[in-house]
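[Q] Does anyone have a clean structure-token version of this?
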Amino acid sequence: MYREFEQHGIERARLNLVPLPNTESDDSETFVHRRVPTGRILFAGRLTELKGVDHLIRALPGAAKRLGKPLQLTILGDGAERSKLEDLAQKIGVQAEFTGWLDAEAKLGVMSRSDLLAVPSLWPEPFGLVGIEAGRLGLPAVGYAVGGIPDWLIPGQTGELAPGDPPTIQGLENAIVRVFANPVHYAQLCRGAREHAREFTIEQHLMKLEAALQAACVGGSALKAAVDLTVGNGVTKCTLLPL
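[A] Here you go.
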């Protein structure tokens, strides 16, 4: 979103980047990937045209052929495109399971059993919090370099990016192959995804938000106040202190 605002004429001095935090608990080492992947790919989100799930389905046969092993797709979510996507997967022979929406615990279970998260959005996603949710489990990702996705999907570190201008099925296929082609590289991506996800904390979020608000106040805003942001017992408290 920072880049979108900048491209539409907003001065950098007026922009602050405050990434979203991961507020889910992170207390289980049992989910961290330490095994050889079997080709289980997960998509989680709304099934609309701009989410690019059709690109993902079409990319899998070529990727599976190049890797020399089958790839299975789990689609967690629902939406207007579901029936079309089900028909497409059946037509081109992609093994795909459509689960619909799941509760938080079931979603965690599906993520823990997956080998790769796919975020093939065709539009500039503001962030893509699902990537951080997956990363804390050691689950790397593939996606297009659009919107805020490159803020957390770092090629060669937390997953692999496909070009986003324009996004192509071949580019996504290549990214999937890069993830799975080398077991050592895959293990590095799992570790990198988990380590990077740990940086998206509520404490870091509030520290950057506080700095932005204080800068706005000191910079001549009509609101003359300092801002005190504290976190305790999972509750965020914002206090305006007169200057």
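[Q] Thanks! Anything notable?
[A] The longest strand covers residues 225-232.
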